[in-house]
Design a protein that fits this description.
Layout: H1 8-21, E1 30-35, E2 38-45, H2 48-60, E3 66-69, E4 72-73, H3 83-96, E5 105-110, E6 113-120, H4 123-133, E7 141-144, E8 147-148, H5 154-167, E9 176-181, E10 184-191, H6 194-205, E11 212-219
Parallel strand pairs: 2-3, 2-4, 6-7, 6-8, 10-11
Antiparallel strand pairs: 1-2, 5-6, 9-10
Length: 223
């Protein structure tokens, strides 16, 4: 089997094209460098949503190994909000998301930076809490310190995750091994793309009580 290795220049060109393709992003404000498959994003944008959209766009590009997001959020004057106003908006956004147990979470806002704390039962709820507030005007960044409260079925969890990987059309479960250590799941093996790598992680986060995922999957695209 021949593994096709793409050059950093090819990856950089595709990341730039993907940034231009995403209408949420001001691509002319963002710089892209690539070294050994690792993408670094620089520049400035006027919202946290655009910062995260740029990061997601880079991850979508084939053979990208990792992304260092050094983009700065510089809010325009009309988007500036007091911390009290922003905290109230964050609380309301969390309450409106049915997947997020807002009453178990604690919100702190300091100079536009939001910190989320508390406990949830499922890993996906931790991610959903952050996604629920991404679109709010005035946010400069988010620290997601939510903890997943362990509630495991030790003898069945590994088998449940493996079956979920088999069911998922985006993953080749034959190439992925699953190890469970307490409330941490370790993934090893090879995947064809970042999208497949992310799909495997999503399968794990759907299991109850998972507090951490150590993803050691290697992206090895096949031509």
């Amino acid at each position: 089997m021949t593994i096709y290795t793409r050059t950093d220049e090819e990856i950089q060109a595709d990341v730039l094209e993907e940034l231009r393709w995403d209408s949420r992003i001001q691509s002319n404000e963002i710089g892209v460098t690539v070294k050994d498959g690792i993408v670094t994003l620089t520049g400035s944008v006027d919202s946290y949503l655009q910062q995260m959209a740029a990061q997601d766009a880079a991850h979508r590009v084939r053979t990208v190994k990792a992304v260092a997001n050094d983009i700065e959020v510089r809010l325009p004057g009309f988007a500036e909000r007091t911390d009290a106003d922003l905290a109230n908006a964050v609380l309301n956004a969390l309450k409106w998301d049915a997947a997020v147990p807002a009453d178990t979470l604690e919100v702190t806002v300091s100079q536009g930076w939001v910190t989320l704390k508390g406990e949830v039962e499922f890993g996906f709820q931790k991610g959903d809490a952050e996604r629920a507030i991404r679109r709010l005007a005035g946010i400069k960044g988010v620290s997601n310190q939510i903890m997943v409260k362990p509630h495991l079925r030790p003898t069945e969890l590994k088998q449940d995750i493996e079956r979920a990987l088999v069911r998922n059309a985006q993953t080749d479960a034959r190439q992925i091994s699953v190890e469970v250590q307490g409330s941490t799941v370790i993934l090893r093996g090879a995947v064809r793309s970042y999208a497949e790598k992310q799909a495997a992680e999503d399968c794990v986060w759907s299991a109850p009580g998972i507090s951490d995922v150590e993803d050691h999957l290697v992206i090895s695209p096949i031509p």
